[in-house]
């Protein structure tokens, strides 16, 4: 069996004496007896904590005994504090096109040397670095110059890391809301170039200098956004002279990030519905006029489009500097529908014309009844000639031989004796009147059918024309920008 005994080794350490129990008189050992007892000394983890806690306490007390966080950490007053800045973009939270604000989540890494926070590790139990609250030491007063809404500086005062050489590393999380001029001319196939300008607020370049940790910023922890994709993220350092402080240039680092919008949401929810409204408008000309539903369908499409535009208008950036592509397309669709309604009214008017109010011009009959139908591969309107109509009507009403009962050769019908009878002549005149009336009705019916045929031809022409305009208009609005984006890839 093993026996454990604890003995105090020093003020800060404990040791364990691990001993072997002495065997009884009746027990025999199979191994040679060298030592009846031996001791193993082991430092427990608690002992390390005791060492570390005491050394840390003493180190922090020595470091901050005469420390003043208001004074710049330099050996000489004329020396500069060199701050290395790195901005790690974590997330693109929101892009507000209406208010032109970009909200980002990032880690603002800052490194500098504080000569008041140096020590020798061997004097403090080998401690080479400590973590202290950021409010207890001097900090560079970096602020976001183009702040739009929120905090200009870091508000989450996390702890920072201080090394024995005096190097300070601080990497607090920050949520910035910066102003960005949103150019909406190519919306929703747009790219935006936004920036964040960081610089010291009170220290000019002779007191504090800032430089980038790297020209190409760290994107290793960036979380992809469902609406935007980050194409480029770089920073540039500038020396700027302000009117308030002539002769004292201030340094700033301006981070530019180019982001491209993912247009799938707007294609599915805006562009395709507008395209369908346009095609539905074209179908108005395919609907027969006699159905009486042309205007009903046209007005229904217009009302549906109006309600749809009122719903999606909040998705479009409200700016008067330029009209976005999607706004142009919506305007094109609205004009398209209104023009279709106006033309539909004209076609319905042509369909219901009569010879008593409108006389068809010969060129209209030649163009829309004889020429265009053949070009559009459907049959022309068949109408009996005037001579055939006269013969048919006279044949129906003036067979005098049947009335008299005498079969006479053709050409002598009007010279028979029966035609000289007054009653017969009166009957013949009545038959002539009826024949002329029937002839006029037939002419009116044929003229009305001709106007209906012209309206039908116009419907077919307008159906093809509006379908072509819908396709060409859609391509004309978006094709140029899509080609430009593909060339820039």
TrEMBL record:
Location of the Neurotransmitter-gated ion-channel ligand-binding domain: 57-262
SUPFAM superfamilies for the chain: Neurotransmitter-gated ion-channel transmembrane pore, Nicotinic receptor ligand binding domain-like
Compartment(s): Postsynaptic cell membrane
Ranges of residues in domain Neurotransmitter-gated ion-channel transmembrane: 270-478
Transmembrane helix recorded as keyword: yes
Entry annotated with the keyword Transport: yes
Domain of life from the UniProt record: Eukaryota
Residues passing through the membrane, by range: 264-287, 299-317, 329-351, 461-483
Keywords carried by this UniProt record: Cell membrane, Disulfide bond, Glycoprotein, Ion channel, Ion transport, Ligand-gated ion channel, Membrane, Postsynaptic cell membrane, Receptor, Signal, Synapse, Transmembrane, Transmembrane helix, Transport
Record Pfam families: Neur_chan_LBD, Neur_chan_memb
Membrane topology annotation: Multi-pass membrane protein
Matching InterPro entries: Neur_chan_lig-bd (IPR006202), Neur_chan_lig-bd_sf (IPR036734), Neur_channel (IPR006201), Neuro-gated_channel_TM_sf (IPR036719), Neuro_actylchol_rec (IPR038050), Neurotrans-gated_channel_TM (IPR006029), Neurotransmitter_ion_chnl_CS (IPR018000), Nicotinic_acetylcholine_rcpt (IPR002394)
Any one of the GO CC terms: postsynaptic membrane
One term of GO molecular function: acetylcholine-gated monoatomic cation-selective channel activity
Catalysed conversion reaction: Na(+)(in) = Na(+)(out); K(+)(in) = K(+)(out)
Similarity comment text for this entry: Belongs to the ligand-gated ion channel (TC 1.A.9) family. Acetylcholine receptor (TC 1.A.9.1) subfamily. Alpha-1/CHRNA1 sub-subfamily.
Function: Upon acetylcholine binding, the AChR responds by an extensive change in conformation that affects all subunits and leads to opening of an ion-conducting channel across the plasma membrane.
PANTHER family, A to Z: NEUROTRANSMITTER GATED ION CHANNEL
Protein name, UniProt field: Acetylcholine receptor subunit alpha isoform X3
Origin species: Petromyzon marinus
Name of the gene: CHRNA1
